[in-house]
Write a structure and sequence with these properties.
Structural class: alpha/beta
Low-confidence stretches: none
Number of strands: 7
Mean pLDDT: 96
Shape: globular
Strand content: 15-25%
Oligomer: single chain
Distance between the termini: 41 Å
Order of helices and strands: HEHHEHEEEEHE
Amino acid sequence: MASIPPFAELIADTHRTALHLEMRDAYTPGDPVFREWAAGRPIPEPAYPSWYGLVREHTARGVAFRRARIVSEPLSRFTSFEYDITAGLNAAAGEQVRWLPRRRAAGIALPAHDFWLFDGKLLRIHHFDGEGEIVEDELSADPDLVKLCGEAFAAVWERAVPHREYRPLR
């Protein structure tokens, strides 16, 4: 399999939009920031400074970051963690974030995997293990797959609630 460029390289080649669809209820359970949050300890803001800096850099040059999360309610512990850090991390860095309760996603044709879609042309597909760890990423410019993912993202975005308005069941 060909080597996948790091995210920083992919976003550097992006000019208009970086769309991210998340559909899992848990990611990287071994993440140290999540463990601190789960233990009730304070976490720094922003929780992930390198991500914050990367998003700020690229939104400043005009790239729109949109993140849509399809979530089960009540929220899982990991999704509660994501909710709690979104304002001080994602939104503060310039990402637009929306939440779609899974029960409201019925009828949307969704791909099997989370993905990033860059400028409506290139997909970075995430393959996870059962515990939420990324085991492999895949790049695709297949027009049919790009279209499916773009349409899925648009449908989710239309139904989803902006972060500042979303009040999850916990």
